[in-house]
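Cross-check.
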Amino acid sequence: MHDFWQIIVSNALVATALAIGTALLSRAWKNPAAIHLLWVVVLLKLFTPPLFTAELSIPAGWRLATERSNASNESPRALTAASDLSPTALATTPSPGEPSHMATANGVKPLGRDQSLSTAAIARRVWSLPNLLVAIWISGAVGVSIWFTIRIRQFASLLDRMEPAPDDVVSLTRRLGKQLGLGRIPSVWMTTSAVPPLVWSIGGRPRIVLPSELFARLTTDAQSAILAHELAHIRRRDYLVRLLELAATTLFWWHPVVWWACSQLRELEEQCCDSRVLELVPHQARTYATALVETLEFLSAHPCVVVPLPTAAYSNGSLSRRIVMLAQFRTNRLNVRSASLVAALVALPLAVAIAEAPPKSGDSAQQTAPVLQGRVTNDAGEPLADARVRVAIPATDMRFVDSSSDHKFLETKTDATGAYKLALPDVKQPTTVSLDAMQPGYRRLVGTLFGGPEAKRIEVTPGTVTEASLALVPALYLKGVVVDEQGKPVPRVKIGANAKYARSSGGVERTVSNPDGSFELFNYAKQPFARGDDVAKGAVYFFHPDFVRSQIDDVYALAKDQRETLRIVLPTGHQIAGTLLDVAGQPVSGVMVKATRENGRDRKATMTDAGGKFVLRGLAAGPSILRAHALKLKQKVKLPIALDSDKQNLVVRLQAISLPVQPPTVAVLGMQLTDITPELKNAYDLYNDQGALILDPGKNSERLGIGKLAEGYNFWMVGEQQIGSVREFVEQILAEAAAQPDDDDSIRVVYNFSTLDMDGSNTQHMRLTKQDLDDLRATLVKLPSD
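Predicted model, tokenized:
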């Protein structure tokens, strides 16, 4: 706790000194862009840990009251931490020769006179100054966050009622955005509410919000000036500064410098954007000034809507200053010299902290961190140099962990002898972790998707070294890059490697492209996968929501040099934008809308927003089918569309699903299942005529280890046997379990699914307990014979 307060107080003092220095510097250095950056550093300093400490001798009277509170009314012996002082967990450390005292089940066992603590002493420790400060800090942060949440939700509800800007405003925005060098032009929305022109970015990409009444009264030149101002905010990424302000004011609400910095940042942003406007629309200073005055008049004549975290063309209290500035135009940008000076000014404050005492010798975190070490070899026992070893904390199925995953993982490489060593600094207690290893020309340690998880799991303990040697088997290696039609790299492309058989397919590997568009695949066997005479092709699919899907038909048909120099080009294609309505004509939110060819290929899907709106991009030209299925409403739609151009403002209305009778359900492994019938196949758009349909996956279906299930998924195979009903599903699971060795509790199942990413079949291995099997036997007795 002492170290925590030392860092907080140190950062607060350094940030204060930096703020005062910035304010003084701004009087002499008239460069708003540079001063703005310095104020950003003031806020950042509150969060940055020091790179080194400057030792100061602090008088005893200035030290935190913890030292005094710890010394008063207590034994001089060591005590447990304040957070551990509960009536049932209080103990002292006995001196040599004294009996050890333990807490009883009903309270504290009486201690010796020298060791006893009064109730008042305990209360003083629990309500010591540091603990009281923490309680006040947390209460204030919660209050500020609630205030921000309410304001943001109120304003977000206003955004739901906005309309897209007219085409002429959109065209003007695009022209100005290109002049500013924006790579992505923001969307523009109109509102009838009394708000200033502003940029809103909470909860998504930044977009420009314009009051329709004000914009209608402005001339075209004035509109251009206002739009240029908002686009300049986006070009400068001022909306990201608002997020920094949100974090700083929530966590450091008690520090006056935070509120001072926020007001200065917004004022300086207006100066920089005003200057940029006059660069973009020269000789329009008078027009721009008139637009600012009209904005003020508009806002003063209407009940104004409070905008949380504003990035707006109008800033309270700055109108006169801005009009004077417009008459004395000067460029407000960072050049190389000013940027270098700013870097020099901020380097020391960001790195330094004030320390009360010299740092302790040694790094206790490093000393106690568990260490994993071992060797990576091939199946012949030969060492593999430069093999990548990846550790996921805590343990997980690493077949699905990649650069786009939120799961924490660490990575290292082997040396020339195949040895690796990796410290796990954040592990503070015994933890099970997962290991993966990969090397070009060898299969990943975790194995293929359809083969079931094979990742090695190891328990690590702080302060110990754990040995884990790994062996990899030979495999094909694929390497390449994904680009768009202009040759620019496309990051975060979802890549699926499959073994494609005549009538089915199995997952081999999943990954995503890196920021530079590059990707690697490791898991294809040297020889094609085969099931008897059915030899699979190595099909690789490349999917991104903004582009037309691409694929490699068969990696085995490629030469080795081709497999390692792949260049995948994703076409832009067409898009469909519209609104989904229910049978009553009301917008429907949170419903998946997908477009496919008649054969189900070239699929794209998205979810409708709060206003029922959707946009599908990257669609291939030709006849397509638009589908939507609102399961909760029991409504769906199937709409043929000829895609020869973009489709905008499409209105799609759902139709009611009519079922002759309510299907009978059976509780199986916590799920509610029913037999597939022709009526259910049509209602749920199923591919299979037979099988077990999931009507409710239950609250804990993920424990089965076969992925996240949902209504509308259906089981159609258990083991290698196709099933036609719920009864056959249960029977075949029991038959497979009876044929398994005693130490194997996994059953192969195949089910059809539909997600935003794809429609398809998923082959997994269901993990069952003895109790699960007993429950299945009891269920089978109750099921009628087919």
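The chain has 18 helices and 38 strands. The CA atoms of residues 746 and 767 lie 5 Å apart. Passed to J.P. for a second look.
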